[in-house]
Write a structure and sequence with these properties.
The chain contains two helices and no strands. The longest helix has 66 residues.
């Protein structure tokens, strides 16, 4: 048997193997399961990134609201002090 015939035979065996496996429902089911798991993994990674982004946005919003509240408390305190001065001077 020559080298060419041997390679051709191996190629034929490989083609036959893959053809048989594609018709095999167990192999096909495992292949679909692997594809589904891979897609699930990708979706999980994307969801993790979205959750991280949402968490960072939430942290930024919380910090902004805390600063806004602090500014409102300072303004209300100053208004209270001015009203007290107004009452003392007016008496």
């Amino acid at each position: 048997m020559s080298i060419e015939n041997k390679e051709r035979t191996l190629a034929d065996v490989e083609a036959t193997f893959y053809e048989a496996m594609s018709k095999n429902t167990v192999f096909s089911s495992l292949n679909r399961s692997a594809s589904a798991l891979e897609k699930l993994s990708e979706n999980t990674e994307a969801l993790t990134a979205e959750i991280k982004s949402a968490s960072e946005s939430s942290t930024k919003l919380t910090n902004s609201l805390n600063r806004l509240t602090l500014a409102a408390v300072i303004i209300a305190g100053l208004a209270l002090v001015l009203e007290g001065i107004k009452l003392c001077v007016g008496s």
